[in-house]
Amino acid sequence: MMSNREDFYNLYNSIMNSDDKVRFVTILDNQGDVLFGGQREGIQNYLSEEDQKKSIKHVTDAWFSRNQFSSGIGGGKYAMAEYGKVKRFTFPLNDSHIIYITTEPEVESSQFIENVLRIRESL
Questions:
Q1: Average pLDDT estimate for 62-91
Q2: Is 2 helix (H, G, I), strand (E, B) or coil?
Q3: By Cβ atoms counted within 10 A, which residue in 48, 73, 99, 114 is the most buried?
Q4: Total domains present in the chain
């Protein structure tokens, strides 16, 4: 199980380098605390720092509350939301951590999802 800073860095780096349309990658715990992450150099932030924190809290709450139904329908593999300026992806890392990623809206979603799943499984 991934749990140390080096593992998180390797995951972050692999995802960030998988597609130049990746804007932001972070690993969160089930409380919404950022354990590791960052954004691509030179990109424009669309949200204030306060709104970024609110967004991360929302993503975390949504993911872990959604999984209360996993005993009936199975565990979540990923969640995706598309907005005008970004796509947002959430993947489970383990029972208590998630990977939160934003990309440019032009990213090819199905290929990107497959790449992230492959990266996650390889580390």
A1: 91
A2: coil
A3: 99
A4: 1
Cα–Cα distance, 20 to 65 (Å, whole number):
31
61 pLDDT higher than 70: yes
Burial class (CB in 10 A: 0-12, 13-18, 19+), 18: middle
- The answer to whether the CB of 59 falls within 8 A of the CB of 88 is yes
What's the pLDDT score for residue 2? Answer: 57
Range of the domain at 58: 5-122
Fill in the DSSP letter of residue 117.
H
Q: Which amino acid is at 8?
A: F
Q: What is the mean pLDDT of residues 7-26?
A: 96
Q: 42: domain CATH number? A: 3.30.450.30
Rounded-to-integer distance, Cα 90 and Cα 23, Å: 14
* Cβ-based burial of 26 (10 A; exposed 0-12, middle 13-18, buried ≥19): buried
Q: How far apart are CA 106 and CA 32, in angstroms?
A: 27
DSSP annotation of 9 reads: H
